[in-house]
Fold these 2 entries.
Entry 1:
Amino acid sequence: MPARQSVLIPPQRTPRTSARPSPGPRLRAGAAAATVWYLRVLALLNIVAVLSLPFREEVHEHNAGEFFTPYLATAGLVSAALALFLAMVMRRRKRAAWVFNLLLAGPLFALYVLALTQERFREHPFNWLSAALTGLFVIALLVGRTEFNAIGDRSNPRLALAVGAVGILVSGGLGTWLVDATNKVSGAPLTDKVAYTLLRSVSVGPLADRVPAVESPRWVDILINVLMAGTFLLVLYVCFRSPRGLALLGAEDETRLRELLDRHGERDSLGYFALRRDKAAIFSPTGKAAVAYRVVGGVSLASGDPIGDPEAWPGAIDAWLTEAQRHAWTPAVMGASEEAGTIYARHGLDALELGDEAIVDVADFSLDGRAMRGVRQAHKRVQRAGYTVTLRRHEDIPDDEMALLVERADHWRDGATERGFSMALGRLGDPGDGRCVMLECRDADDEPRALLSFVPWGEHGLSLDLMRRDREGENGLMEFMVVELLLRAGEIGVRRVSLNFAMFRSVFERGARLGAGPVLRLWRSVLTFFSRWWQIESLYRANAKYRPVWEPRFLLFAKSADIPRIGLASARAEGFLTPPALPSFVRRGRRHGTPGAPGAPGTPGTPEASSARAADQDQS
C-alpha cells in the first residue's frame, strides 16, 4: 500500500481552541464512548452464546427462571445483531439511536429495580449485577446525551415501516412454508405454524417449545432466526440512516462559485469541476471560500481544493466538517493538492497519496529530442493521413455544430456507464461553459473522428474534461490532438495544460528502478495485474510521454477505518459502481432534487455526464 504522506501532517496538529476541554465535556464524551463499548461487548457475548450451547442454555435458564440478565444479553442472534448495529450508529452519534436505546433500557432498568423489591429476586447476586450494569448504561446515556446530535432523514420512519412490513411478510411467509414442509408432527393447524415461526424469529431456545403441535429440524429454526435478524437489521438501517444530502448546486451558489473562480481559479486545476450540478457548496462565514461536495452512501465527498481565498479556507472547511458531523456523514476529500492537504490536516484529517496529475508547461514543451521520438512519429503519421484539428472556445461553436458534437460524443462513449466526479464536469455544450475549449479532429474526408474538451484553469490554463474518439479512426488520434493543443496553445492564450490523473504513479516509477525493495515490487506487481482491467499503468505511461510536471494528489479522511467505506463511495461517485434500482415504493418516498439540477423535475434536458479523464485514452 502507498505510504502515508507525513509531510502533510504537522508534528502537532493545531487545536481548534487554545483552552483545554473542561471536565464536563470530557465526562460527556467518555460516557458516550462507554455506551458504544457496552454494546460492542454485549454483541460479542451474544455471538459467543449462540455458538456455545452450554453458555446459551445457561442464559436462557436465567431469563426463564428467577434471574434476569443485563440489557440486550439474551444469547440470541437477533440481540447480537441489534447490539452490533446500535454500537455502529451510536459511534456515529445518531440522535435516533440514543432515543431508541433509552426507550428500551430505561423501562427495563425500572422493571429490574421493581423486581429487586421482591425477596425471590433480591436474593440472587447476579440480578443485582444485571440491574447495576443496565443502570450504568442508562446513566451513561443520560450523561452523554448532548454528544448524540446527528440528525436523521425525515423520511426514515415511514420508509422503515414499509420495509419492516414487507420484510416480516417475506421472512414470516418463507419461515412458515419451511415449518410446514419439515414439521415432524402431522395435523398441526396453520395458526400453530405461524406462532412457531414468530417465536423462532425471536429465539432458537426453548421459547418455541411451547407449541407442541410443531417440531422442525434445528437448521430450520436457525434459518428463521437469521432471516428475521436480517429483516430487523434492515429496518434499523433504514430507521437510523443518515440524510441523503439532496441539496444540489443552485443558480445562486453557482454564481458565487464562478465569482470565486474568476478571482482565484488559477490556484487549482480542478477548481472548475466544483460547478458540477450534482454537487453542493458550503461557504465560509465571510463568503470568500467554499467547499464543493456530494453525499454518497453516508460519505460527504469533497473534491479538489476549496474554492476561493486560501486565507478563508479554514472557515469553509470548518463549516463543511460541522455539516458532516451534524448529519453523521463521514468526511473525505478526493484529489486534494499538497497545499490544501496541509490545511485539511490541521482540521484533523489524515492523508494518503492517490497519485499524480500530469501538468504540461506549454513554454517548455517541444517535439525535439530522442525522448520525444515516439510522440513525434505518431503525430507525423496521423498528420500524413490527412487528419486536422480545429481549436475553438465553446462559445464560438454554432449551436447546430455543438449539438452534432454532443451527439457524436455520446455515440463514441466506451460503455453504457458515464464516469466522472472529481475530474469531470458532467455536461457538454452547456451555455454556461462558453470559456471551455473544444478540439475537434476530422479525417481526410472531413468526417469527425475524435474530440477533446477542456475546462478553464484560471485565465491562462486548461484542464482536461472529456476524451472521445471513433474506434474506426487512425490509431494515435489522442496523441495527435494533445500535441496540436500544446503547439497551438498560444492562439487562445493558454500557458499550461492539465492532462490525465495517474493513480499510484510513484509506485510504477520507483518500483521499476534498480534497488527497489520487495514490498514496493510486490505492490507494483499487484497494480500491474489490475491494470489489465483498469487503466492504471497505461494512464501513467500515456501521459509520461509528454514530459509533464507531476503534481501529487491526496485522499483525506478522518479515520483509517473509514477508508473502505470512502473507497466504495468514491467508486459510486466516479461511476465505477452502480447500485441496483430501488423498489417503486422506495422511489416514491424519496424527495426530489432542486429545480435546475440534473435529473430534477422541471429541468429541460438533463445534461449528459462526461466520462472520466481516463476514459478513452488512446494507446499507440
Entry 2:
Amino acid sequence: MTHLAVTAAGSLIQSIDWAAVAPLLVTAATALGVLVGDLFLPEPRKRLLGWISVGGLLLALIFLVPLRDGDRATFCVRAAGAPGDAPACSYVADHFALVIQLLVLAGALLAALLSIHTVEADRLPSGEFWFLLLSSVTGAALLPAARDLATLVVALETVSLPAFALVGLRRDGRGGEAALKFFLSSVTATAVMLLGVSFVYAATGSMHLTRIAAALPHVPAQLKTLALVGVVLTLVGFAFKTAAVPFHFWVPDTYAGAPVPVAAYLSVVSKVAGLSGLALVSVVGFHSYGRTWGLALAILAALTMTLGNVGALRQRTDAPHSAVRLLAWSSIAQAGYLLVPIAAAGYGTAAPGRDPLGATVAYALIYGVVNLGAFAVVALIVGRIDDYRGLFASRPATALVMAFFLLCLAGLPPGVIGLFGKVVVFRAAIDSGLGWLAVVMAVNVVIALYYYLGWTAKIFQATPVPAAPAVPVHTTPDSAVPVAASAAVRRLPLPIALCLGLATVVGVVLSVAPQLVLQVTSGSLFR
C-alpha cells in the first residue's frame, strides 16, 4: 500500500510520514548530539564521540528496513481544484532512494570507522569533525529522495558545505589550500546550477520534477530556448559534484590535502550523492530532452574516464602523497563509468526488463565497497605508492586485502565483483545503442590495468629492511613510513581493522554471489 501525506496547494497544515524520514532524522540528531556532547566530555573521553557517530549511522541503516517496500512519500501537494490529479511530492522513499541511502549510510559508516583513528592521531577537533561529517551525510541521504529542485539544491549544498570545512581541518596548511580550491570551484558550479533552476522554473512554473517532466514538452515556443538553457545549466551544476570532466580539476589537490578518511568520504559518498541528483533531474525531470542530455552525458563519460586514467598513469610512484592522488584520479575515471548508464537512459532503447539506471546503482554499490576498502589501507600506510613495496612480507593479510581491492577496481579475478560491475555498465551502453561509448570504456579498462597492476605488483615485491629505527605506522599525513620498518611495530588499529573486515567480507560475498547486486537494483527503481 502506498503511503502518502498530501495537502492541497495553499494549505499550511500537512501530515508527515515520520517513518519515511526517520533515517535522516537519526543522522541529524546524532550530529547535534555529538556537537553538544563535545562541550561536556573531558578530552580523554572525546574518542567516544566517534563511536557514538558510528552508532548513529548504524541506527539510521536499521531505520531503512521498514521502508524496503519503496512505497512511501511525504511532503506532497495536490493542485487546488484538481482532486483527481496525482500529487507532487518533495520526498519519495522509492527503491532508487533506498538503495542510494543504503550506500550513503554504509559508506559513511566505513568512513567514520576510518576517521576514529585519524581524528585521534592527527589531533583533529573531535566535536567539529563528527558534527560536520554527520551533517554532510544527512544531506547525502536526503538527496536521492528529493523530488523537487529546491530540495535537491538544499540537499546538495548540505553535502558540500560541511565537506569544505572537513577538508580544511588539517593543521599543516595543505588542508586550507585544498579546502579553498574545493570551495571556490563548488560555489561557481552552484551559481550556474541555481541560474539553470530559475530558468526551468520560469519556463515550466513548477519546482517538482514530475510536473516539470509533464510541462517541458508543452512549453510555449518563446520559452523553449530558455527551458533548454535551464536544463543544460542545471546538469552542469550536478556534473561538477560528480567530478566529471571538465569539472574535475579540484579533485587531486583536494583529496591529497584532506585527511585520508575525508578523501575516502568524498570519493564515494559525496560522489554517489551527486550522481543520484544528476540521475533524478535528467531521468525524472528532463526526460523529454533525453536525446540531448543523453548525448552530452555520453561525451562527458568518455572524456571523464579517459582523462581520469591518463592522469592516473602520469602519477609518479615515488612522489609525495602519490597513493591518495592515484586513487583520486582513479575516482575520476570511475565517475566516467558511472555516467555511462545515465547517458544510456536518455535514449530509452534498453531491452525490456533492463533499466540502465539500475546499472549505475549496481556499479556504485560495487565501487563504493572496494574503493573505501582501498582507502582504509591507505589510511594505515600514508605516503607514496613506493612505500607499499614489501607489504606482503610484513603484513600479509593487509597486503592480500589491498591486492583484492585493487583487482576489483581493475575488474580482474579474484575481484569478480569488479568485473561484474563493468559488464553491467557495458551492457547498458550496448542495449541503448551507444556502441562507440562501450568501445571507449573497453580501451580505458585496459589502460587502467597498468597502474592498478603496477601498484599490486609493488605489494608483493621484496625489499630490504631499512636500517632506520622503527617508528609508528601513522604519525602525521606527511610522514611516509616504509612498510618494512613500521608494519611489525604496531597492531592494526581496531577501527581500521573493522573497516577493512567489513569491506573485505562484502567484497568477497559479492564476488561469490554477484547476483545479489542485481536483486537489489532490479525492477522499477522509481515509484
